[in-house]
Amino acid sequence: MSTESVDRYYPGLEGVIANETAIANVEGKEGAGGLEYRGYSIEDLATGASYEETAFLLLHGDLPTSSQLREFDGRLRSSRTLPLPLVDLYRQIPSSIHPMDVLRTSVSVLSHYDPEVNAPPTDHAANVRKAERMIAQMATAVAYRERISKGLDLVAPREDLDHSANFLNMVNGQVPSETMRRAFDLSLVLYTEHELNASTFSARVTVSTLSDIYSGIVAAIGTLKGPLHGGANEEAWKVLEQVGSPENAESWIQDALARKERIMGFGHRVYKTGDPRARILKEYCTRLAAEVGDDRWERIAEPIEQAVTSQKNLPPNVDWPSARLYHYMNLDIELYTPIFAMARVAGWSAHVIEQLDHNRLMRPRARYIGPPNREIKPIEQR
Ligand code: CMC
């Protein structure tokens, strides 16, 4: 029996340091709160790096040189197609099934067709190659399933388009404007990594048993889906839709706060003074609203943001602006969380690889609060 004390209990693991990591830092400069990927601030990455460069940074440890980027991007572009049995499966899964559930199944199926399926789970180089294939294929998986569930013809991946433009083209059947492509790419950069959030933690727990990278990503997708985590971007859109018009916003939010409702897209376990990702994305929402010529959703969002921030001291998190951003791109609400997943797979993979490179089984303790020392009565006396 181990000797650790069960007196120290941290509900929700708040404040527990469960890992060392060189991937992301949410402390920011001098502990002031902020987000850095491998030492680079997201503010700098937002203006200075594409999703491909950021994914390379997470998986390979530093930003790529131009030749490294060319090769990495080439590998992604040539890995975008899906195994045919997976595409056939999309035709059989009922269209009512949520795309996040289908994405979870997709990654599991993709593992069966990975050319290195039998590589040892601790093979660092094979894991990086598997991660690269997942980054490329998950985007196609999300887009193909979306088109099939809507009864639309598939739009094949195009090797002449970058990751973001190709995804939007596969979903909408139209190459996006440069403003849309840029905003989408930025949202992927901001979604791609976030230290030991719940889904990353579950991926690390899974592979800490020396399970494989695909199992870790499947676990992470299942965890991300919940509305307190990645599912919040879909819920945030439902808030805006329920409010419906700028004129309703003030009374809607005051009623909701009076009823002590949880307002989705607000609050954060780590950031108590504001989520830096939300600040960056909000600016892009304004730009896209201008491009589509409809600022209604911005005028609905603003009074809600003001009220929740000032009255509850809960600033918006990344999921609040991203919901509007994806709406402006004509993306179905049920794609919002799968898009989060297809961005985050780079961060999840980096953490899985880091875990396996320095592994120790994750096995915490629980404090027992059930009845003690019970005796079994014969069944006829229970
Ligand atoms: N609206 C209203 N009240 C809230 C909210 C909210 N969004 N968030 C927290 N609270 C209240 C909560 O009701 C509780 O009040 P009381 O003490 O009176 O019972 C108090 O704040 C503490 O809540 P908690 O859930 O223990 O706090 P936490 O730090 O664990 O919460 C959170 C973090 C993200 C789960 C929570 O803020 C929340 O549920 N937000 C809405 C869902 C959401 O937007 N999730 C996305 C998170 S960020 C990006 C991502 O992972 O996708």
UniProtKB/TrEMBL annotation:
Belongs to the citrate synthase family. The keyword Transferase applies. Gene3D superfamilies: Citrate Synthase, domain 1, Cytochrome P450-Terp, domain 2. Coiled coil: none annotated. It comes from the Bacteria. One of its GO terms (molecular function) is 2-methylcitrate synthase activity. It comes from Singulisphaera acidiphila (strain ATCC BAA-1392 / DSM 18658 / VKM B-2454 / MOB10). PANTHER family: CITRATE SYNTHASE (PTHR11739), CITRATE SYNTHASE, PEROXISOMAL (PTHR11739:SF4). InterPro entries: 2-MeCitrate/Citrate_synth_II, Citrate_synth-like_lrg_a-sub, Citrate_synth-like_sm_a-sub, Citrate_synthase, Citrate_synthase_AS, Citrate_synthase_bac-typ, Citrate_synthase_sf. One of its GO terms (cellular component) is cytosol. It catalyses: oxaloacetate + acetyl-CoA + H2O = citrate + CoA + H(+); propanoyl-CoA + oxaloacetate + H2O = (2S,3S)-2-methylcitrate + CoA + H(+). PROSITE patterns: CITRATE_SYNTHASE. Pathway: Carbohydrate metabolism; tricarboxylic acid cycle; isocitrate from oxaloacetate: step 1/2. Keywords: Transferase, Tricarboxylic acid cycle. GO terms for biological process: carbohydrate metabolic process; tricarboxylic acid cycle. It holds the Pfam family Citrate_synt. The active site is at H268, D319. This is Citrate synthase. The keyword Iron-sulfur does not apply.
